[in-house]
Amino acid sequence: MQTIMIDGKTLAAEKRAELKKRVERLLTPPHLDVIWVGDNPASQVYVRHKQQVGAAVGIEVKVHHLPESTPELDVLKLVEQLNKSAEVDGILVQLPLPKHITSDNVLEAIDPAKDVDGLTSFNLGLLLSGHPQMVPCTPQACMALIESVEKDLTGKLAVVVGRSRLVGKPLFQLLLAKHCTVLQAHSKTQNLTALTRMADILVVATGHAGLIGGADIKPGAIVIDVGISKKPDGSLEGDVKTEEAKGVAYAITPVPGGVGPMTVAMLLENVVQAAERKQNPVDED
To answer: What is the CATH number of the domain that holds 54?
Structure first.
């Protein structure tokens, strides 16, 4: 079997082109504010990338870079200021935060209408109830990648390996909404292979490098590899052993170049949606 490598970079570029057109129809450009606390090198790369891709589609991105020692109360005060600002369409808290700051406290303080990461309990509750407003970006990316190779998911058996608030739990709901039968597993599931080998759609999001090998995949499955880990030589690898999966899976996302680019594109989508809800877009003739 010739396995399709799902090109997240190309799909993300197509999404950005679509978003740029939507931004051009708005009365004022969307405005995203990013809160970054500390000097985590990876966070610096991610924040800079969001600034670059945001600017490319016409989104104004402002970064609030706070010292590592900033008290949690000061971060919460900044969130409240941004909540009240009429100029701000979206608020993003760059994770991880320093250990003395409770991430949940900061995330829950964000106005749900500006919660472009979709991680507040309010927005997750709307997703669970079947009335989503802001959907977490990585699960949205996974769905877009899956549907790029299979439009109709009705009746497919989907196995999600991972149970995080960021990916696994919301992705379960999105797959269910597409009429999949969904099983949720995790790195501690007993006899995990018995489940993964049944999956028509397999999404792995555990952060355990090489957890899934070729023998763990049903022939012809669609495999979405969310995990990303750095090897001793500095190269990156996912939760799935890609070389083993080739020839077994129908389609698979590479690491890097798969889920990552689409996740950023879906963040921009949420920012644009927030601006569209607030404004009255100028209709094109």
So the answer is: 3.40.50.10860
